[in-house]
Amino acid sequence: MRELDVKFISEAVVEMCKDSNYILGEDVIRAFQKGLEEEVSPVGKEVFKQLLENARIAREEEVPMCQDTGTAVIFVELGQEVLLVGGDFEEAVNAGVRQGYQEGFLRKSIVRDPLDRKNTGDNTPAIIHVKLVQGDQVRLVMAPKGGGSENMSTLKMLTPAQGVKGLENFVVETVRLAGSNPCPPIVVGIGLGGSFERVAYLAKKALLRPLGSPNPDTFYADLEDKLLEKINNTGIGPQGFGGRFTALAVHIEVFPCHIASLPAAVNINCHASRSVEKVL
Amino acid sequence: MEFKKITSPLTDEKVRNLKAGDNILISGEIYTARDAAHKKLIELLEKGRPWPVNLRGQIIYYVGPTPAKPGQVIGSSGPTTSGRMDPYTPTMLKSGVKAVIGKGSRNQETRKAFQDYKGVYLAATGGAGALLAKTIKEAEVVAYPELGPEAVRRLVVEDFPATVINDIYGNDLYEEGRRRYAREK
Ligand code: SF4
Q1: Which of A53, A64, A237 sits opposite B129 (nearest CB)?
Q2: Cα distance between residue A68 and residue A279, in whole Å
Q3: What's the pTM value of the predicted model, to 2 decimals?
Q4: In terms of CA atoms, which chain A residue is nearest residue B102?
Q5: A210 Cβ partners below 8 Å, 6+ apart?
Q6: Which residues pair with A267 in a beta bridge?
Q7: Strand extents, DSSP E, A51-203
Q8: Counting beta carbons within 10 angstroms of the beta carbon of residue A123, is it exposed (0 to 12), middle (13 to 18) or buried (19 or more)?
Q9: Is B184 part of any domain?
Q10: How many CB atoms lie within 10 A of CB B23?
Q11: Which residues line the pocket of ligand 1, CB cutoff 6 A?
């Protein structure tokens, strides 16, 4: 067993809150550059120009790229040979979020109760997903998620008979209804299979894949390409101003499911497709 | 890309020149208000009481900035989703507001209100908060400080970039842009 003090988890989370909000990944920057070169709509081109400039300012001046610094969504892969000591694990993660959002001048966007709407004042609690894995390391991924794009996400229990056609219609319809609201160009995360709760998790996980890395299964990689084309044929375009770049990527994650079900979830992410990773 | 330069406060004359699809650069004063501030302003109107700030001819920006770092005028300041303000916007326009800045489409009633009251709906690039903050030269809270990021602020901007979505002629860039670039039957 390897002992790990939870204070190191807090410290890592503090840094990840700031980095994820200040520094946009190289994969996303590359997708913006492609958009700037290939977008045919002049207003759409101007959007890519602004997004590249925005990412540069955020990185160089260490300020949030977007004012919605999101819900702190944190994925943890916990090695089963790690013994966590020094305090409560969840509290350690939340302490990191509290400190990171304060020190990093990030916006606190969490309300303590969905109906009474009082702000918790420190952006906690985080949404924490823990998975036990082999080994003696802890891998943390922080992916702050904005409200504008999260609100446009949908889950549907399709019937097996609806099959791939049903899935395609559901995905394109979700993007069409979202229109300009989720700050296109968007990233589309699709969960397929599992159960009601697992499929939403899969859709969110799909967003974490670097842009431009297809599903390892060629059937799903082809489906990702096909869906991207269909989505970009809607004409919504950057910011919904009209154009060919509505989405930068479509990622699908799949899991076996019940003989009677075909769960499908679409988690939409905005171009502020933020995530950072740390291994302890 | 050509930009039309405009200065606030706005008049019928200035608004007449703005067409859906125009890229513009705004200079002068703009006022921030989101959900909570709108609710309070509308309540005052219903009670027949005056507003804490005069918004006649002014531009309202739907934004909840991040906290400013030391030395910054304001934190990151991109637009929030405008649809949530739809229930309030026709009344705001009727009361003299000339333009609003946000992101995302408006409902039928609100779009019609832009035509009826000679106002425009502008979109700023959603998610470009760091870039937009650079164009904000002054910021002060002028009403409802208790609302924190949702307080009403008076901003002075220089060349704040925006795109005209709904003009006074009934055009809508979101609809037209989509139609122009769609490749579907
Ligand atoms: S949808 Fe994304 S880019 Fe747009 S305001 Fe929200 S967090 Fe920012």
Answers
A1: A64
A2: 26
A3: 0.94
A4: A181
A5: A25, A27
A6: A189
A7: 73-79, 82-85, 127-133, 138-142, 154-158, 186-194
A8: buried
A9: no
A10: 16
A11: A 66, 68, 146-149, 182-183, 270, 272; B 78, 126-127
At A150, list the tokens. Answer: 């999260």
A152 and A177 Cβ atoms separated by less than 8 Å? yes
Query: A168-211, pLDDT tens digit by residue?
Result: 999 999 999 999 999 999 999 999 999 999 999 999 999 999 99
Same domain flag for A122 and A220 = no
Q: How many Cα atoms sit within 13 Å of B138 on the Cβ side?
A: 9
Which of A144, A166, A196 is at the close of a domain? Answer: A144
pLDDT greater than 70 at residue B185: no
Q: Contact A8/A280 with Cβ under 8 angstroms?
A: yes
- Residue A274: closest CA among A130, A100, A145: A145
Q: Which atom of ligand 1 is nearest to the CA of A68?
A: 7
Q: Which residues form the domain of A240?
A: 147-273
ipTM score of complex: 0.93
**How many other CB atoms sit within 10 Å of the CB of residue B47?**
7
